[in-house]
């Protein structure tokens, strides 16, 4: 037979009682589309790969 525990000891509220209520993050208006009209090609054209590479290097090395 398996171990017996009460349902209260199995839920997340037992382990993290002061956690944030993140349900508000799941709300989305049906007419809202963040990427509507966004064109990846146009955005990439403005990207400087050399500057991005330097930023990533600085982030990873702390310089």
Automatic annotation (TrEMBL):
Gene Ontology biological process: response to oxidative stress
Write down the InterPro entries for this protein, in alphabetical order. Catalase_peroxidase
The protein's GO terms of the molecular function aspect are: catalase activity; heme binding; lactoperoxidase activity; metal ion binding
Q: What's the domain of life for this entry?
A: Bacteria
Q: Which UniProt keywords apply?
A: Heme, Iron, Metal-binding, Oxidoreductase, Peroxidase
EC number per UniProt: 1.11.1.6, 1.11.1.7
Q: Which cofactor does it need?
A: heme b
Kindly list the residue ranges recorded as spanning the membrane: none
Keyword Iron in record: yes
Q: What is this protein called?
A: Catalase / Peroxidase
What species is this protein from? Answer: Halomonas citrativorans
């Amino acid at each position: 037979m398996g171990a017996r525990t009460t349902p209260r000891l199995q839920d997340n509220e037992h382990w993290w009682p002061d956690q944030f209520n993140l349900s508000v993050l799941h709300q989305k208006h049906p007419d809202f589309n963040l990427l509507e009209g966004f064109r990846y090609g146009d955005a990439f054209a403005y990207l400087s790969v050399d500057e991005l590479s330097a930023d990533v290097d600085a982030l990873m090395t702390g310089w």
